[in-house]
């Protein structure tokens, strides 16, 4: 009698624990379904970015580069490493290592600015389902610069222009 | 010890020095009226202000939403050495204006020092003709406009509040009114310190935390309580060490305040800063508080305000950004000469 009660108690506890784990797993954002993943226009539509999951982090690459008609695909002309100046910006990964906190904030990332050939520390915040605040900074977020990005469902692919 | 560690140590030391000088200026502003009206003794006023500056963290968090120079300076010209030079420039400007007993904005000094260092860095990297390319002019317009608007806002709210208060206490004996407003000033002063804590005081804690991340001491950017305690403690020490020069200017020399005037000035400042914070307007605590003191004094009697001193303070505000920029540029120059 006592043994049956004890087993029933442990089974009930196990079920309760399993259901809590399942609920938490369902609630936790999966890397593949993170709300930030998708296509984004940068501020002033200077470029288009695809944010994607890379392992358990978020990375970003150029999906579209705003350029004058007749010009070839933009290259990484300002990279301080001369051997990299020939590489095309199209589909180049230029941001990464962002860790999601589960509340729409992504920190500890980096971003490369091809205009300056320089890397900055960065964080991102989803301020709305289709609005993203990207903050690049030096040393501490206090000394930084913010940009607002806008989500889009479709965007011209820079590969098609090549 | 490598160069990066030395640089991190210097940035932390400069941030703490900035906090100390901030204690001369901004923190002194928030206790000036309560000390002047003798509601609290100076030491108790510092403790009172420090406590509510710190408590602001629990109300507003440590999001460090307030950035320095966002949209004002080309980030590609910013390096940890530029930040260090900017901080030292701001500290030097704070010391100069403290010596002159002028209540100037520590935030503006930091922006100026930071801009000056970035301009020098740009000149070194791209030549003299490109020195100012690091400055995004459009980003500076609201800051410059609010040097005029912020004190006007504080002055207007305080003036109206003081007029209402004077009308309401018409039949109350002055001694009784002083007692009532003395108690109310404890609340208004706490609100002002709370707003200061949310608006300004977290900046240095953020700089220290950033330097600790860069040095590898922290894995992620976070502001732990001990960094906050250190920052607020340093600010409190600054106020105790030299804040009285500014307290005297704000609380005695500009106009003589009674507890009702102190209450109105503090309530007006806290309200104006709250409105500005909600609307993301770049106001300085110093500018708003000075305007509010003038508004409360003028409501009692326009002649009780020393307008020539108010004019000198206004000039000090106008010269804060270029003055701190010049000092930040000089410090950056020294750093470049030293191989920074």
Overall description:
The complex is a heterodimer of chains A (162) and B (340). By secondary structure, chain A is α+β, with helices and mostly antiparallel strands. Chain A has 2 domains: 1-30; 34-161, Lipocalin (Beta Barrel), CATH 2.40.128.520. Chain A is built from 2 helices and 8 strands. Chain A has an 8-stranded antiparallel beta barrel with strand order 1-2-3-4-5-6-7-8. Chain B is mainly alpha-helical. Chain B has one domain. In chain B, 76% of the residues lie in helices and 0% in strands. Chain B has 13 helices and no strands. Chain B has helices spanning 3-24, 26-36, 42-60, 80-99, 106-126, 137-168, 174-199, 202-214, 225-242, 244-253, 259-278, 285-300, 307-337. In chain B, helix 1 packs across helix 9, helix 4 (80-99) runs antiparallel to helix 13 (307-337) and helix 11 (259-278) packs antiparallel against helix 12. The mean pLDDT of chain B is 86. Chain A binds chain B through residues 107-108, 113, 115-116, 118, 120, 123, 135-146, and chain B through 11, 64, 66-71, 75-76, 78-80, 82-83, 114, 203, 206-207, 209-211, 213-214, 220-221.
Biggest sheet statistics of chain A: 8 strands, antiparallel, barrel
* Number of helical regions of chain A: 2
Helix content of chain A: 10-25%
Overall mean pLDDT of chain A: 81
Shape of chain B: globular
| String of helices and strands of chain A | HEEEEEEEEH
Strands across the major sheet of chain A, in which order?
1-2-3-4-5-6-7-8
What can be said about the biggest beta sheet of chain B?
none
How confident is the prediction overall: mean pLDDT of chain B? Answer: 86
What's the total count of β strands of chain A? 8
Instruction: Tell me which protein chains meet in the greatest interface and how many residues each side has.
Output: A-B, 20 and 26 residues
Domain count of chain A, please report it.
Answer: 2
Helix vs. strand class of chain B? mainly alpha
The Cα radius of gyration of chain A reads 22 Å
CATH class of the largest domain in chain A: Mainly Beta
